[in-house]
Design brief:
By secondary structure, the chain is an alpha/beta fold. 44% of the residues lie in helices and 12% in strands. It has a five-stranded mixed beta sheet with strand order 3-2-1-4-12, sandwiched between helices. A four-stranded mixed beta sheet has the order 5-14-7-8. Helix 2 crosses helix 3 and helix 4 runs antiparallel to helix 5. It is elongated.
């Protein structure tokens, strides 16, 4: 029985030791896994630290007689929790390979754990090292070989990222267009952008020691609302055509789609965050920065495409400027691949503050960066520590452009158009807009933003007087006043 208990303890100890040391070797993957299983962002690091130390402690405890039974009980409890999580996920949605694997592994390890708990209640067997010293060399070799095989089998494997070999090329020339406005086809035009780089460097695939570089250089995050197709093609384009070495893929789901969760967490190996408590683009984008592990963040819509080389160039930009506090954006490229809009002019039109416009300096991808007043927020980037955040009261759609840019400037940063950071956005919605889109939300967000910045709200009220009845405007204004605006007499024009 001593031999059975010793082997059972070894079989149980090896996977726990592997899990602990794997987390030490690759903390980024460990954090991604914790986020994918629903651990809150602020608790991820503490959870990983406790789990890592607990796994290694349980593995060591299983090798010593005095602590073997207690360690087996702890291991059994952990396995029960993991199996419960796997079953809950399988019941709530379509079973994924990762979920089925977790359940199978937990049930497999439950067998040696049960043997130790049942047969080792009074005596869990000898300590492992003295026991190994007392068996024959052939048995020792067989035991050690088996330990190596089990350890290799249980070591977590990440899906390899294949970096395509991309030769430097010159993109299509941009035909001259008249300066001024370029009107997108819908109200959602504020969401879009495609970054493009004409200088593409072939980047080698690198595996940097995780204990030296504990956080990725860049998080590419997107906020999504009921748009699986957009998430799928944006993420797959990033994986197929871009240098994602030292980059994290993050999706904040403001709707709650099981297909999106499975694709992001199980197939892409990215970080999936369910955030359906409040419906709103600003709320979801705030969470992109809150949950990002990267030192810098590229936030984009779930239906934006980037040309080859943009991600690599953005990482080089931040690597060369570690103290950058600027907000980086680039020209929106329209569906014809030629026309671009480099910024918003701060003009009120069609329930929006901002009209698409073109600065000639943005037509040449290798041109120098220049400052802009504002731009659509379909794709934008800044260092995580420089993120000023949207007003927590924002909800629905609208009010973000201009507000974010002014907050960045007031914190000492600049709002720059990087001509090489070009982005293409899917504006057309043949099946309709899936997310909440109301005039009331737009008015409320603009009022909250203007008050937060100390700007006069009369331009907001005047513009929306053409789109809402006076009674409705008064109701929204009263709602805002009750929380953030000092009571004052205002006259609607």
């Amino acid at each position: 029985m001593d031999a059975v208990l010793s082997v059972a303890r070894l079989i149980l100890a090896i996977p726990f030791a592997v899990a602990g040391f794997a987390a030490l070797a690759d903390p980024i993957s460990a954090r991604r896994a914790a986020s994918a299983w629903g651990v809150p962002g602020r608790a991820v690091n503490a959870t990983i630290a406790v789990a890592t130390l607990g796994a290694i402690g349980a593995a060591v405890g299983l090798t010593v007689t005095a602590s073997a039974w207690a360690s087996a009980a702890v291991a059994a409890g952990v396995l029960l929790v993991l199996a419960g999580l796997a079953v809950a996920r399988m019941v709530s949605g379509k079973p994924s390979p990762a979920t089925v694997s977790l359940l199978a592994r937990s049930l497999t390890l439950a067998v040696p754990a049960g043997i130790v708990l049942w047969e080792g209640r009074s005596n869990a067997g000898p300590s492992i090292l003295p026991w190994l010293a007392g068996i024959t060399p052939a048995q020792q070799f067989a035991i050690v070989a088996g330990m190596v095989v089990v350890g290799i089998a249980w070591w977590p494997r990440a899906e390899p990222r294949v970096q395509p070999s991309i030769a430097p090329r010159v993109g299509p020339s941009i035909a001259p267009t008249a300066d001024g406005e370029a009107a997108p086809p819908s109200e959602t035009a504020v969401h879009g952008e495609r970054d493009a780089s004409r200088q593409v460097e072939e980047q080698p695939i690198r595996q940097a020691p995780a204990l030296i570089r504990k956080t990725p250089a860049l998080t590419i995050g997107m906020a999504v609302f009921d748009d699986f197709d957009g998430v799928y093609f944006t993420l797959q384009a990033l994986r197929l055509y871009h240098d994602l070495d030292d980059a994290e893929l993050l999706v904040v789901d403001n709707f709650g789609c099981a297909h999106t969760r499975e694709f992001v967490a199980d197939w892409v190996g990215g970080t999936y965050v369910l955030a359906d408590q409040v419906a709103g683009t600003a709320y979801a984008k705030n969470l992109v920065f809150e949950r990002a592990s990267g030192a810098a963040v590229l936030c984009c819509d779930s239906h934006v495409l980037f040309e080859p080389g943009v991600i690599a160039r953005l990482k080089r930009f931040y690597r060369d400027r570690p103290d950058c506090r600027d907000l980086l954006q680039g020209p929106l490229v329209y569906d014809d691949g030629t026309q671009v809009s480099t910024h918003f002019e701060p003009v009120w039109r069609e329930q929006m503050w901002g009209v698409w416009a073109t600065d000639p300096r943005g037509r040449e991808p290798d041109g120098e960066p220049f400052e802009i007043a504002m731009q659509g927020l379909g794709a934008f980037s800044c260092r995580a520590e420089a993120w000023p955040g949207f007003h927590p009261g924002f909800r629905g759609f609208g009010g973000e452009e201009g507000y974010l840019h002014e907050k960045v400037r007031r914190r000492g940063g600049r709002c720059l158009c990087m001509p090489w950071l070009r982005w293409m956005h899917r504006f057309n919605r043949p099946r309709g807009v899936p997310y909440p889109l109301t005039v009331d939300d737009k008015l409320r967000n603009y009022l909250l933003g203007h008050v937060d910045l100390g700007l006069e709200v009369e331009p907001v009220l005047t513009h929306f007087a053409d789109h809402l009845p006076a009674a409705r405007i008064e109701a929204v204004l009263a709602e805002v006043e009750a929380t953030v605006i000092p009571r004052a007499e205002r006259t609607l024009r």
